[in-house]
């Protein structure tokens, strides 16, 4: 049986925290030490942290038509890390101050896919890359009617150029298996759908 976590935030001493970059996103530099599994404390170590607001992702699902609604857009991170910088993703966006997670899910679905959500089903929440960023992402499945969806959407003032694609569920699973869909939120959401699709069909 796996042991419960041994440490918590009180097991870390922050010696110094400094903001070293402030733009659309922010970067903080930490000097800290933490308790060790074998006992005692680590030496003071330096870690840079990419500070990102909490985010929400939504897998748009039409059970009647057996489709999912995916969005395709340019990602600068993929420009450096991959050969293909246009990614197939789930709808996603950052949480604004005072916004609930459900409000973000509905707002982003309208902005990015011109889509109204009929019902939201929680999937999970996770830390996207805790070795270097504070970002936490909450995933939902949004039940929709995919009739007449498609086209180009997004907010011009945010530089968004988003192509909406309505894809058969099995085709999306094939793209996932081939590695065409290769970003964390979409992978997690579609793998969740693979596991839960029979139950969703039965209940809904």
Tell me what you see in this structure.
The chain is of the alpha+beta class and 204 residues long. 24% of the residues lie in helices and 38% in strands. Strands 4, 5, 6, 7, 8, 9, 10 and 11 form an eight-stranded mixed beta sheet that branches. It has a three-stranded antiparallel beta sheet with strand order 1-2-3, with no helix packed on it. β10 and β11 form a beta hairpin. The two termini are 36 Å apart.
Can I get a quick summary?
This protein has 204 residues and is α+β, with helices and mostly antiparallel strands.
Record the SSE blueprint.
Blueprint (H helix, E strand, L loop, with lengths): L11 E11 L3 E9 L10 E7 L3 E8 L4 E8 L1 H6 L4 E4 L1 E4 L6 H13 L5 E9 L8 E8 L7 E3 L8 E7 H9 L6 H20 L1
Parallel strand pairs: 4-9
Antiparallel strand pairs: 1-2, 2-3, 4-5, 4-7, 5-6, 5-11, 8-9, 10-11
Jot down its keywords.
204 residues; alpha+beta
Overall pLDDT score? 94
Helical residues, percent: 10-25%
Order of helices and strands: EEEEEHEEHEEEEHH
User: What composes the largest sheet?
Assistant: 8 strands, mixed
Strand content: 35-45%
Distance between the termini: 36 Å
Structural shape? globular
Low-confidence stretches: none
Which quaternary structure do these chains form?
A: single chain
From the alpha carbons, calculate the radius of gyration and give it in angstroms.
20 Å
Number of strands: 11
Count up the helices: 4
Which structural class do you get from the secondary structure elements? alpha+beta
